[in-house]
What we know:
Chain A is of the alpha/beta class.
Amino acid sequence: MSKVDFNKETGPREVFCGLTSIVWLHRRMPDAFFLVVGSRTCAHLIQSAAGVMIFAEPRFGTAILEEKDLAGLADAHEELDRVVNDLISRRPEIKTLFLVGSCPSEVIKLDLATVAEKLNTRFLGQVRFVNYSGSGIETTFTQGEDGALKALLPLMESTDDEKLLLVGTIANNVEDRFKKIFNNIGITNVESFPPRQSTELPKIGKNTKVLLTQPYLSDTARDLKHRGCEIIQAPFPLGVEGSTKWVLAAADAFKIPELKVHEVIAPLANRARQALEKHTEILRGKKLFLLPESQLEISIARFLHNECEMELVEVGTPYLNKDLMEQELNLLPDDTKIVEGQHVEKQLDRVRASNPDLVVCGMGLANPLEAEGISTKWSIEMVFSPIHGIDQAADLAELFSRPLRRNQILTSKSLATF
Amino acid sequence: MELTLWTYEGPPHVGAMRVASSMKDIHYVLHAPQGDTYADLLFTMIERRGQRPPVTYTTFQARDLGGDTAELVKRNITEAVERFKPKTLLVGESCTAELIQDQPGALAKGMGFNIPIVNLELPAYSKKENWGASETFYQIIRTLLKDKVNEIEKINPQRWKSLGRRPKVNILGPTLLGFRCRDDVIEIQRILSEQGIDTNVVAPLGSSPDDITRLTDADINICLYHEIAETSCEWLKRNYGMEYTTTIPIGIKNTINFINEVHEKLDLSLTNKEELEHKSKLPWYSKSIDSNYLTGKRVFIFGDGTHVISAAKIAKEELGFEVVGLGTYSREMARQVRAAAKDLNIEALITNSYLEVEDAMKKASPELVLGTQMERHSAKRLGIPCSVISTPMHVQDVPARYSPQMGWEGANVIFDDWVHPLMMGLEEHLIDMFKHDFEFVDGHQSHLGHTATKGPENKEDEHEPSNESIQKKGNVLWTDSGKAELTKVPFFVRGKVKSNTEKYALSKGLPEISDETLYDAKAYFS
């Protein structure tokens, strides 16, 4: 392992909570509904993060706790029952209903597991209920997806069939590309989790080889292992290097010769490297500071350093699972400063002191940093855009080169002369 | 428990943030978990602020709950005071912290800081954003001014005369994330200064705690947004005798009423009364024959209390519309909105459910919707033109240009913003009428969305109805002569004529509609 410089920090944070992951999960599984059991704050958070107004009726909502629900717990369970009944009768197309715990529901110890169990009995054959927590006292941003996927595992039947299971939400077109590549190298039985329909859960077992598409699925990976699955150790499929090594790791698990993989990948990689070049020209030598939020930070840092030649000032991450991230950490340059956790004020002091060319941060911080003359890229875009895979490497780089290119345009002499 | 897919108002601590972020030299320590930091983006993204809201989130986690969260609160307060050196500190909690009862406000007061500390208790499970903003503003004023109550004698609104200076007023209520507040303040200050009236303090927007302590230098208060400032104005009246205005200067009539009210309170004579009606283009534009087609347009209004009450008055009295729906999501303003609806002989809709609003909108079949961004989306689905008149804020509601709602320029803005979508609606009809002309063979892209011309809602208004629909409606048959006559009716009233004639035929028990029946019905209804 390369000698990266690990640090931990605690203090006030500026990150989303796990509820935010509903924003992409509901798009992945259009037959599912996500019902947050929480407060008006939870409802406001999701609608602010998701641009809810564009949906006539979104596939997520909040059962807002009111004063009378807090008075006695029995009440809250009955109330939740009523809300779920209303919802199901209004939206008969719902096949899976996620009851999502929040900070307030966790603090008052609302037992969503028991509620889900009862509802499962009542709506047997019509709707399935699962529960997980997206609360901000336990989860950060993408960890919400980890909770949701983990909650689905008990519903997945067992099989001894050999298969490759891609785990983690990715864009549908990216998923198709991955499947094609795996088919081309000779892995034909490839499935995805979460699936495109919540009812079409893959079967898993001792011959299932799991390849994680996202770095934030620690709990899901652990439970998959308990079910007998093999977790393939690999860096994550971001950039040409990460994606190639990711495919190679899968090939290795299926005993497919490396040469075969290179045969398939080489033309794609060449094409991608060419497309990357114009972004590298802009990014080369520029200083990058990543604030913690999505847990994609380490993979993004690796990509932007190794393939786009950026200098890494600091790589923040809300949470670091050293086992899952081992291969990524190995690919980072020596002495990369990694900071797990956050003290947002101290971190911003370091941002200002290091005078970076680009800061990756949350939406709350982006405009204020821009106003100070520091270019930014908001991290939420990385969970909404198709950025995985070799074909997407240039698109991923473009997310970071665009703010710099824009800066060049706006500060060029042509404007300044007016 | 209430199922909410989307909410008009955030929680009350977001209201507190609106007040804190509007002010200078103030900091808000919010006992809250990390996810609550989402609220920062409302200011930095929607309002495009170049500064972070002055808020420290204590960021407690599950593992802290077994230990000492009170210590965590104290540490954050100490750090925030040292780092930001606020002149006044707000301390409060969000929904989750309310449950663990650390009482951060009381903790802060025991820490020995030499600055005023405002303890914000905002019940997250019963109150909402506007209430939180109002309460926060009131608590700041109360904290900073309560000790002076006995030092100062009651403020006589006419004291400016004996003090030998121009009259001075405070403008209270504008905040960040309030609808066009930034520009309303400029417009109102301009109007007041034209009348020889000075502004003492604008608050919360742009004020500091120092400014709050000099609120009592003014002769009267102007309550610009009742949702935010009424409680504060009442307190200042009770304790300092400060009078305050209640007219909201939106629309020509109410801008004039407002100016009159200010003059009356200050006992200042109004010298340019005749001029006032000509300060805005709205009265003439509305009188211009071009606006004749606005007469009786059916309008549906939904939003916050202040803006919907004003909008109803303008719609009815200044533009000659017919108000067919009026409602608000502000429970605090329900009484006033109900009264306004009663004057219009309709029933007010008081709800926080946008789906209920959409249903009411559908039933009222308006020709124009005045609402929030959510009603804009609902109206788009129904193919009805819409103009946005109220919060919740959207990035589009913070235009780069000067665009107030209040005063003379506000009336100009309102005329344009409300009438243009209607004109587009008319244009839509014209294009529909001429759609078979060769210029349109490639198909016209509607700016109201395809539902406007193709949606099932509009089927009945199609100008060349299919034989089936024209012949069989409530068991009334249209004869060939009836059909032929109907096609000669101008397109924009054809739908109305058709349904009226059918109604007439049914009421008379006629089995079929001929050309003569159509004229009988016309005479009957005119």
